[in-house]
């Protein structure tokens, strides 16, 4: 039931309609609603990358953990497993490229800052193929700085420029004549960074002072202006004892409607205001107010009757947490004003308890408890450990701002993580001031109304291979042969077959790493007895790292947000060397008198029951088929179309032996018919089946044991076996592979307590920490000589965020 109440301010009395959002009956037949539902039906993704630092010394590692989210649910993405990561220099040239495997929405790795890097600014990007379909930003982009000590004599302070840039942006996107308009202010320096605490004054055409304002430390503020269309407004800003004059270049429109949003206690108050001239034209016309968050939408009827102001109030508890976009449409469903509003209420942000520091000999162990994390649900925390006085951690985003704020605006937000650090009412107001300056959201209604639902860039799960047959792969009937393929030494054979009449087949969900090749063998006569190298024409998807098509990829500001009072001197010896360059000791070779075959048999015998037979070259030459070998060992063997059968003579019961192929129990032994010894690595013969146990659909045969029945285990050669590859398979190179997981190395420094180390040193980086059964996260680091700060980010509880900065005195 709708309720009316009186909302008072010093000048106006408004009648307010309380609305319970998403409980109203949305206009499901409206063009707005149906177009939006259609546009947002396809899932979206957002990626955030937690970098261990933002300013690096050449020779260090860039350690990073990437979190890929479903944009609508804010939970780890289940759709994609491929993430592209690139680093570009100032000329947009790619210095590093990588394809990472995403599991449970998380991927991590390391980029060493090698000889390809010089001193300067670089751009770090991360994106999926799917998000290239959409104009709304889902990719991650961040600026990082690299300093080469051999060419930099000092870390220079950031120069302060005399010039400033000021923009004045009316709330909702328009100034309307003869009404009170809220105007957002953005003041920046030549580096694109906000100028802190600047003061301004607004004057009319007669040079009469109208109002005054002051921006915050990020150069953002607002002022109220009752605009007149016949007036010209001048804004004077004082900065560093200099005065700057700007024109308010926004046109004051004679006809229109303004939209403003104000947080009042536990409500968002939306005011739709027009003037008397406009009211005569729009009176009784059916306007619509849409409220959406990228997932859900409500469309509410708005009618201007005899009053120039319509106000609607929404309980914050009824609005979705995070971003809400308010858009007013006219009677022809044309969007005319829009306002972004961020709802802090209901955000699921987890905080830890106090850190416990346990001193050890040359290290310390840090333990902190997250009592609200469910330990048996997936969670991941990435932790950067830096000196407490660090100047090298200046990333503009964190996991919350990148997921809940940045994707909804068109431009880049300076120090977006600030709005989610130690949140209070003042900070909420500062974010609201920022959103006034952003204008229209990243959701373009022209795109929404004209959506074609065609997507050029598919979701990717690994590498797909299209294998095209050549004439050599056709059998005597003109049909393609079966093909066996495998990827690496841990991969078992897989058999692929083509439908009759097809000239190709697909291999899906392959995850090759950097040194992997695709080995393929042709199966002659549709069985496993004869193999030869395959002769195919292969096409790989993807085959390279695609470029990011979105236009807004330039970061408009430098990464350095700190202004140093004095430069920090350093030279090429500030770092001794990265830890990866460890000293190698002289090699000591110990030779055994046993042959390699005997050594391997002894090794395998310690891990299995029964007698081990290693199939070396001499065994292959002596026995063509497995049946020949077993017969030589004294078994009674049958090898025909019914399969391979073997029985141990003089055993109690005289039962047939049980066959196990690569640890899989065979009920049907026809795959072992005329099985070539050249395919076998080793055989285990357990005459009495002692210690063997096999499960069948959750139950056990004979209580799980096979008494008085022999067991024969056959283990086939691994794909990289030197006697297998050259003879019976062909290796195909992947044009693009997944990056192997690299270890993060902390560099060695000459001094661990000087200013350079305090400001730019690295203590540790942990990309994939988990809570234990009691909710504790633990990490052990070398004992630092200076106080430290932990920069913690992560996900838990299937949708909760973790973001903390914890300073710790370690002495």
End-to-end separation in angstroms reads: 62 Å
Amount of helix: under 10%
Output mean pLDDT. Answer: 84
Q: Judging from the principal axes of the Cα atoms, what is the shape?
A: elongated
Q: How much beta, percentage-wise?
A: 35-45%
Classification by helices and strands: mainly beta
Largest sheet: 5 strands, mixed
In the sheet with the most strands, the strands line up as 1-2-25-22-21
Helical run tally: 10
Let me know the number of strands.
55
Detail the poorly predicted runs: 1-29, 561-566, 582-587, 696-707
The radius of gyration over CA amounts to: 34 Å
Write a compact overview of the structure shown.
It contains ten helices and 55 strands.
How would you sum up this structure, described in words?
The chain is built from ten helices and 55 strands. About 10% of the residues lie in helices and about 40% in strands. By secondary structure, it is mostly beta strands. The model is unreliable at about 1-30, about 560-565, about 580-585 and about 695-705 (pLDDT under 50). It has a five-stranded mixed sheet. The protein starts with a strand and ends with a strand.
Topology:
Layout (H helix, E strand, L loop, with lengths): L3 E5 L4 E7 L11 H9 L5 E7 L3 E3 L3 E10 L11 E7 L5 E8 L4 E7 L7 E8 L12 E8 L6 E2 L9 E6 L4 E2 L3 E9 L10 E5 L5 E6 L5 E7 L7 E6 L2 E6 L4 E2 L3 E8 L2 E8 L1 H7 L4 E6 L4 E6 L6 E7 L6 E8 L5 E9 L5 E2 L5 E4 L3 E7 L10 E8 L11 H6 L20 H12 L8 H5 L13 E7 L12 E5 L7 E3 L7 E7 L6 E7 L7 E3 L2 E6 L26 E2 L5 E3 L18 H10 L5 E4 L2 H6 L3 H7 L3 E5 L2 E5 L10 E4 L2 E2 L14 E7 L6 E4 L2 E7 L5 E6 L5 H7 L1 E4 L14 E2 L5 H6 L3 E6 L6 E7 L5 E9 L3 E9 L3
Parallel strand pairs: 2-25, 4-10, 13-20, 28-55, 44-49
Antiparallel strand pairs: 1-2, 3-5, 5-8, 6-7, 6-9, 9-10, 11-39, 12-14, 14-17, 15-16, 15-18, 18-19, 21-22, 22-25, 23-24, 23-26, 26-27, 29-30, 30-53, 31-52, 31-54, 32-35, 32-38, 33-34, 33-36, 36-37, 36-50, 40-51, 41-46, 42-43, 44-45, 46-49, 47-48, 54-55
């Amino acid at each position: 039931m709708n309720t009316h109440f009186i909302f008072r301010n010093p000048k106006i009395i408004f009648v307010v309609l309380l609305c319970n959002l998403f409980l109203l009956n949305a206009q499901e037949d409206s063009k707005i609603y149906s177009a939006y539902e259609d546009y947002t039906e396809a899932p979206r993704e957002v990626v955030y990358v937690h970098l261990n630092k933002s300013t690096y010394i050449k020779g260090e590692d860039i350690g990073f953990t990437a979190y890929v989210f479903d944009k609508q649910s804010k939970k780890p993405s289940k759709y994609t497993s491929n993430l592209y990561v690139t680093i570009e220099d100032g000329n947009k040239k790619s210095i590093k490229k990588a394809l990472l495997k995403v599991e449970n929405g998380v991927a991590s790795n390391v980029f060493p800052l090698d000889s390809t890097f010089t001193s300067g600014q670089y751009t770090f990007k991360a994106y999926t193929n799917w998000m290239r379909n959409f104009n709304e930003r889902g990719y991650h982009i961040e600026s990082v700085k690299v300093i080469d000590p051999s060419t930099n004599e000092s870390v220079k302070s950031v120069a302060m420029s005399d010039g400033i840039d000021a923009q004045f942006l009316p709330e909702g996107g328009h100034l309307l004549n003869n009404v009170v308009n809220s105007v957002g202010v953005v003041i920046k320096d030549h580096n694109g960074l906000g100028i802190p605490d600047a003061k301004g004054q607004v004057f009319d055409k007669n040079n009469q002072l109208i109002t005054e304002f002051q921006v915050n430390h990020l150069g953002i503020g607002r002022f109220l202006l009752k605009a007149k269309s016949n007036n010209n407004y001048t804004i004077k800003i004082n900065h560093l004892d200099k005065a700057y004059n700007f024109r308010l270049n926004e046109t004051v429109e004679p006809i229109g409607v303004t939209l403003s949003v104000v947080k009042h206690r536990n409500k968002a108050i939306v005011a739709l205001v027009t003037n008397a001239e406009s009211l005569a034209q729009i009176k009784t016309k059916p306007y619509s107010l849409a409220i959406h968050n990228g997932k859900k939408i409500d469309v509410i009827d708005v009618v201007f009757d005899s009053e120039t102001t319509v106000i609607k109030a929404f309980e914050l508890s009824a609005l979705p947490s995070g971003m809400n976009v308010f858009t007013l449409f006219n009677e022809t469903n044309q969007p005319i004003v829009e306002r972004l509003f961020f709802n802090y209420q209901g955000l699921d942000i987890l905080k830890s308890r106090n850190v416990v520091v346990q001193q050890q000999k040359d290290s310390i162990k840090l333990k902190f408890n997250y009592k609200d994390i469910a330990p048996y649900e997936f969670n991941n925390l990435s932790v950067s450990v830096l000196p407490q006085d660090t100047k090298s951690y200046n990333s503009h985003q964190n996991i919350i701002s990148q997921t809940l704020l940045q994707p909804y605006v068109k431009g880049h937000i300076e120090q977006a993580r600030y709005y989610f650090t130690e949140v209070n009412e003042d900070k909420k107001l500062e974010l609201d001031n920022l959103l006034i300056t952003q204008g229209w959201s990243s959701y373009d209604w022209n795109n929404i109304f004209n959506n074609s639902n065609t997507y050029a860039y598919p979701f990717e799960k690994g590498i797909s291979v299209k294998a095209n047959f050549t004439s050599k792969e056709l059998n005597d009937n003109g049909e393609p042969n079966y093909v066996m393929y495998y990827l690496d030494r841990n991969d078992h054979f897989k058999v692929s077959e083509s439908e009759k009449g097809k000239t190709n087949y697909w291999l899906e969900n392959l995850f090759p790493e950097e040194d992997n090749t695709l080995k393929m063998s042709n199966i002659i006569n549709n069985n496993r007895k004869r193999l030869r190298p395959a002769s195919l024409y292969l096409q790989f998807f993807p085959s390279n790292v695609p470029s990011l098509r979105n236009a807004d990829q330039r970061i408009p500001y430098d990464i350095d947000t700190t202004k140093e009072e004095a430069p920090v001197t350093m030279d090429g010896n500030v770092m001794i060397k990265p830890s990866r360059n460890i000293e190698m000791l002289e090699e000591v070779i110990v030779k055994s008198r046993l042959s390699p075959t005997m050594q391997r048999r002894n090794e395998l015998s310690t891990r299995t029951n029964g007698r081990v037979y290693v199939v070396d070259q001499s065994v292959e030459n002596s026995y063509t088929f497995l049946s020949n070998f077993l017969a030589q060992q004294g078994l009674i063997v049958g090898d025909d179309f019914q399969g391979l059968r073997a029985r141990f003579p003089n055993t109690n019961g005289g039962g047939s032996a049980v066959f196990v192929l690569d640890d899989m129990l065979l009920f049907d032994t026809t795959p072992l018919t005329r099985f070539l010894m050249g395919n076998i690595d080793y055989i285990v013969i357990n005459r009495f089946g002692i210690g063997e146990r096999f499960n069948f659909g959750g139950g056990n045969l004979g209580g799980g044991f096979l008494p008085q029945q022999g067991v024969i285990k056959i283990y086939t050669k691994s794909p990289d076996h030197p006697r297998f590859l050259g003879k019976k398979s062909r290796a195909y190179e992947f044009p693009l592979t997944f990056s192997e997981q690299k270890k993060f190395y902390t560099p060695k420094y000459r001094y661990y307590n000087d200013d350079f180390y305090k400001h730019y040193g690295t203590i540790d980086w942990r990309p994939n920490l988990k809570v234990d059964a009691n909710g504790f996260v633990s990490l052990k680091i070398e004992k630092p000589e200076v106080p430290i700060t932990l920069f913690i980010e992560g996900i838990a509880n299937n949708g909760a965020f973790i973001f903390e900065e914890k300073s710790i005195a370690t002495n």
